[in-house]
Design a protein that fits this description.
alpha/beta; globular; ten-stranded parallel β-sheet; 382 residues
Length: 382
Amino acid sequence: MNLLNTLVDKGLRRETPTRGEALAVLATSDDDLLDVVAAAGKVRRHWFGRRVKLNYLVNLKSGLCPEDCSYCSQRLGSRADILKYTWLKPDQASQAAAAGLAGGAKRVCLVASGRGPTDRDVDRVSDTIRAIKEQNEGVEVCACLGLLSDGQAERLREAGADAYNHNLNTSESTYGDITTTHTYADRVDTVRKAHAAGLSACSGLIAGMGESDEDLVDVVLSLRELDPDSVPVNFLIPMEGTPLAKEWHLTPQRCLRILAMTRFVCPDVEVRIAGGREVHLRTMQPLALHLANSIFLGDYLTSEGQAGKADLEMIADAGFEVEGAGEVTLPEHRAGGGCGSLEGGACGPATADSRGSASGEPRTDLVAVRRRGAGTDLAPNA
């Protein structure tokens, strides 16, 4: 297929595909799916070999968020029966992180619900970062605390944070359809604040919210322009009690095409399979490792993932290896400077077939609310 040969060549040269080429990837048929995976896999292996980076989430503060993001079980007005608790103490957070690190995680992602941190919250998270760093040599720490005010990214960096996550989630043109309490521009501003402070920027998307192919391509192209080092690809987990609980549009094949498109657009970036992989990729998860070089180990913020042991077995069985703490994730040209490393970079209508639809009944049985780990007395999943 000439399209795939062109995209492989561009990926090896770090050239951005055209919007039309990216859309064409999403429009490929299931008959061509393995060809698409094989082509994107060449780009993935060129920049990242067969290494898989493991990341571990620690939910520092769960629920009771004042924002109205439609996809989120922690949102204002959510009726989802999730864990709700206020800030974990630094020693509690460090203990939670230790479970993931023992399971092979290289990065700990510290997440807190809310619009954005107060200065006191930044102090609290800074103490947590220091506690984790003191007890775990070489660990990477990423903070995800919402919208940042001036100076907060710098303070997190001084405390030892390596990265900051703030996802764009969807295209600018449809952002107002999923959130009204802040804007797409607010999110872009926070990613830029992280860049400016010297933090490794992490920003991605959520697929499966009813968006079009154009929306998916536009948000990934926007991410390419922002030039984050990490791009998490989330697949919507339709939690009961949220406005998007009935949105079951994804198939495993659709998810693989989305990951392939992301890899072609962001060839030398850490592409991470994030929330929802167990729900939507299901038995096709091993194929996704040929596209993404990073996953979350164990559970997510408010939902449970597959057993950490199963994650490790899946990686080994698929012929991949867990990236060690002493290994550098990013290619040399990115690892040195990180932000703004792309050359010249700055810090067709969708059809029913191309968008995909869930086959059979929605797999609500695969959506499990988290009842273990941080905020509970039960051992975490790692």
